[in-house]
Every structure is written in C-alpha cells, then in structure tokens.
Amino acid sequence: MTTVQDLFAQGSHAFADEDYEEAVNFYTKAIEINASHVEIFLKRSATYQKLGKDKEAYEDALKALALIKEKPSVDVSVEAKAQLRKGVAAFHLHDYQTAKVALEACHALSPDQRTLASWMRKNEQELAKQPKVTAPTPAPAPIAAAPVASAAPVAVVPASPATPAVHRVRHEWYQNDSYVTISVFIKSVKKESVDINITENALSVSVKMPTGSDYSLELEPLSHAVVPSESKFEVLSTKIEIQLKKERFAIKWGALEGDDVNAGSMATTNVAGAPAYPSSSRKTKNWDALEKEAAKDEEKADGDKALNQLFAQIYKDADDNTKRAMMKSFTESNGTCLSTNWDEVGKGTVETRPPEGMVAKKVRLFSVTFV
C-alpha cells in the first residue's frame, strides 16, 4: 500500500523535475490520506505558485496555518514558511496589505527566511504605488428629525482582487564548470521591468510582462550554493539570461532546486569545461561537439573564401586568353575543372570531371567572382 511518505517523496521528485502538474497530483493524493500534514499543504502551495494558480496557493497556505494553530508543538520555522507562502500568494493576487501582514509575521518568526527580504521589498514597492487614502472630512451634526423605520442593514462585501491572466513562460538551463546559466524566454522586456535577486541559496526573478501581467520565478533553495557577487544577468531581446557562479568548481548540478540526489563531477560526467545539456530538455546535447562542428564550418567557409580570392587574383593578373580559358573551363565542366591553358580548352567542350568515387549531377552553379 502506498503511504503518505511515499506520495510526498514522489511529489517532491516531480517538483524537482519541474513536472508541477504531476507533483500536485501526488500531493493531493497524500492529503486525501492524511489531511493534517502541514508540510504537504505548504509544498502543494509552492507547486500551485509555479503553475500560476495563486488562489489555490493562497488557500493551501491558509490551511497550513490553520493546522499549525491546532498543533502548538510545530516548529517556528514551519509557521514562518507558511506565513511566507501566504504573503507570496497574496502578492500575486494583488492583495498587498494582506501580503504585508503575512510577510511581517514571517519576519517576526524567522527573519533569515530565504527570499523574505526580496518579497518584503517588492511588496513595499507595490504598496508605494497605491493611491493614498485621505481621512474623510467630518460631516456636520444632523438636524433632529422625526424617527422613521430604519431599513435592514446591508452587508458590504469587499471585492476580491482579480486574478491576473496566467502567461506560461518557458525557462531552460545548462552548466559548465563555473556557471549555471538559466534562460527565461520572454520577448521585448525592458531592463527596468526586471527585478532579480540572487542570494547564496536562492534566486528570485520578477518581471513586469509587456502584457501588463507579472511573472515570477522563485528557486528556493537552490540545489547548491552560488556566489552572488560573481553572478550576473542580462536582458536580451528574446530572453533574460542569468548566470549563477558555482561556489564549488566543477560540481555537476543534477537539479536547480531542492535536494540534488544526482549531483556529480563535471570532470567525470562531461568533457572538461564543456557546458552540460539543459536539464529541462528530454534529450542530451553535446555542446562541446556542437561548438567544434560550428568551428569546422567556419574554417571551411574561410577556406572557400581564401580559394576564391586566389582564383580572383590569378584571373586579375592573367592575359585575355588565360581569362577566357578559366571562364570556359569552369562553366562547361560544372565547376569541376579550372584551366588556364586556352590552347587546350579552346579545342572543344570541357567535360565534367567529378572527383573519384562521385557521380556528376546537374545542379545550380555557385558563383566564383573573377575581378
């Protein structure tokens, strides 16, 4: 029989593999067996956030906090994490006042909670943009009047914040001995709309999308430590590229986030210094081989260019008969022969002479420029 622990572990593995839909399924099955497990609700809340389901993430955070109230023995760090999850979900729902209360509660419980400082800063920035509410001017005292039957009081229900449309954004990553490179594929983003915070064990990315919605990528904790001062990012026309400097040189990351059971050494698992394939891809790519192949293509192109320049120089310095021989032999032989001897070429049609082991076929001629 599958236990809650088994389902939780399977959900965590799916989360690490960025299969968030599958992770939600495992966590939900675990909750169906045991609905009093705080950590499962927190993990599912984080997974919902990855899927852009902020309302569900908020509700799971509330359920976790309700369970904590029933269990006074729960560790303070767990409660702090629940308040953080609530605050982050409220932020994405544009309920910045609720987010402020939750984040401050988290800070009171555990001020060193990863990514807390970043979320508090972002939330304060959004609160600063909100219109200030001025105190209403006191109304003059009403004039006494005959009593009338009062109407039944009408309950005013505050409008719930609108959930922004979810825009799925793809991200991929790869690595070499020194850096882990993460590419977030969003086009036409302004640099001032990007907020990236890198700590030793966490990465927080917030982007104001061209559509007006918000995108967030929160990796916490990173599977391995990084050096924030030597990490960097660049906003390009088609993507945001983030380079995280590895604290441990040549360690191969098996995952971006959480426990990394597949960690190894770049020296034993890959060509030294060669970037490992993007871990979000299903197929392995040998980036070193691709780089060498591209270099060979460049060398080949340079060789063709040099040969073309040699022919052009010969043609330029030649007399009229030599030029006629070169043009006639090259054209009639379909590019397989280039002769400077007009006495031989002028006698008849120059035949096509393909290299040994090859067969001549009619194709469009490439151009060789004789100046």
Automatic annotation (TrEMBL):
InterPro entries per the UniProt record, alphabetical: CS_dom, HSP20-like_chaperone, SGS_dom, Sgt1-like, TPR-like_helical_dom_sf, TPR_rpt
Keywords: TPR repeat
GO-annotated cellular components: cytoplasm
Sample GO molecular function, one term: protein-folding chaperone binding
UniProt xrefs under SMART domains: TPR
Ranges where the SGS domain occurs: 276-365
Annotated ranges, domain CS: 166-257
Residue ranges of TPR repeats: 4-37
PANTHER family, per database record: PROTEIN SGT1 HOMOLOG
Family assignment from sequence similarity: Belongs to the SGT1 family.
Name of this chain's protein: Protein SGT1 A
Species annotation: Linnemannia hyalina
Taxonomic path: Eukaryota, Fungi, Fungi incertae sedis, Mucoromycota, Mortierellomycotina
